[in-house]
Write a structure and sequence with these properties.
With 356 residues, the protein is mainly α.
């Protein structure tokens, strides 16, 4: 065969090989095709709402009520449909991503979209002009938590654990940003994202132990007096100090007494932070789990509790996770992977504040 005809024949064979399915590869199943279509649709919706919010902000248009809710739901849909896709097509599980989301739930190629999501929330949740910032927001959280824990009778070591846990709560609630608003709620505001009734309850509880705090840490008590005077006549939730103080007193201070036992059951500091975050999300079953004597195997099955968990990114992604009707606390803690990166940041910040 002459060279030209031989080359042409080789190219034709190569084209056929490239066009043919790989050996053993079959056409997508209906389930796989549906999962891919659902993911493509969710991804398109996510891009669309991101672009719409960016355009509205740059055009200085009035935003809708709860402008972050549609963004949040679109992000949930992207993660959920990707998990359904990788359940149907495990080959779609890709490389790790910078958000430390399990790769089965997230395609690392869309990291820039989630970066834009974060930038938009930063704009929508910016503190009001009247917000009273602190020059030492992270130290404030630790100092207040340690003082409260000591007033509750904890030894210094366990009081420091309370400080570290509380710093984790700050990152869990606001990514460590002080005095922020909430693009998904008209109720919860400030550094610890409290509602008006929680803020009032926390202030009342603080007044009840203020004299003990003054005896334990006079300098902190003096700072508190100054911040209280500064915040007078304003929404205390937008003074970083008073919001952290009242948020801790409202939901967490009484549980600080349980820290010695919690540390024995959950030696991992990040698991300790997760447990106290669950006090924010589902307080009643979490307290019951602590009292049960078998925390990790304590099981919740209430549809309302499961809904609250899902609304806070726990068992929220994909049909398999959302179909769960119950879960043990061991399973709940494991499912809180979206909090891991926040708590790791809190651990690093705590090491800066309290170097050994």
């Amino acid at each position: 065969m002459e060279p030209r005809r031989h080359a042409a024949a080789c190219l034709a064979v190569l084209a056929l090989l490239l066009a043919a399915p790989a050996m053993g590869q079959s056409a997508p199943t209906p389930r796989q095709s549906e999962a891919l279509a659902d993911y493509d649709r969710a991804l398109g919706d996510f891009k669309s709402i991101l672009a719409e919010r960016r355009r509205q902000i740059e055009a200085k248009e009035a935003l809708p009520n709860l402008p972050g809710q549609a963004l949040y739901l679109a992000r949930v849909a992207v993660i959920s449909t990707y998990k359904d896709l990788t359940d149907a097509m495990p080959s779609r599980i890709g490389r790790p991503n910078k958000f430390e989301i399990p790769p089965a739930y997230f395609d690392a190629d869309i990291e820039p979209l989630v970066d834009e999501y974060g930038r938009l929330f930063d704009i929508m949740e910016a503190p009001p002009a009247s917000a009273q910032n602190s020059p030492t927001p992270f130290k404030d959280v630790v100092d207040l938590a340690v003082a409260i824990a000591r007033a509750k009778g904890l030894a210094p070591e366990h009081a420091e654990t309370a400080g570290r846990i509380s710093l984790g709560l700050f990152f869990a609630e606001t990514n460590g940003k002080q005095n922020v608003r909430n693009a998904r709620s008209n109720t919860y505001m400030g550094s610890f994202q409290t509602g008006p009734s929680e803020d009032r309850n926390g202030r009342r509880k603080w007044e009840a132990i203020k004299s003990e705090i003054a005896a334990i840490d006079p300098a902190l008590s003096t700072r508190d007096d100054k911040e209280e005077a500064r915040a007078r006549g304003t929404d205390h939730r937008f003074n970083h100090w008073t919001n952290v103080r009242d948020g801790l007193m409202n939901a967490h201070a009484d549980l600080f007494r349980e820290i010695p036992g919690i540390v024995k059951t959950l030696p991992d500091p990040i698991d300790q932070m997760k447990l106290f975050e669950l006090i924010q999300i589902v307080p009643t079953p979490t307290r019951s789990a602590l009292k049960s004597g078998d925390l990790l195997n304590y099981r919740v099955s209430s549809p309302t509790i499961m809904k609250h968990l899902r609304n806070n990114s726990i068992f929220a992604f994909g049909q398999a996770d959302r179909a769960r009707s119950s879960a043990s606390y061991r399973e709940i803690l494991a499912a809180m992977w979206l909090f891991n990166r926040k708590f790791e940041k809190a651990m690093a910040k705590y090491a800066e504040i309290r170097p050994r």
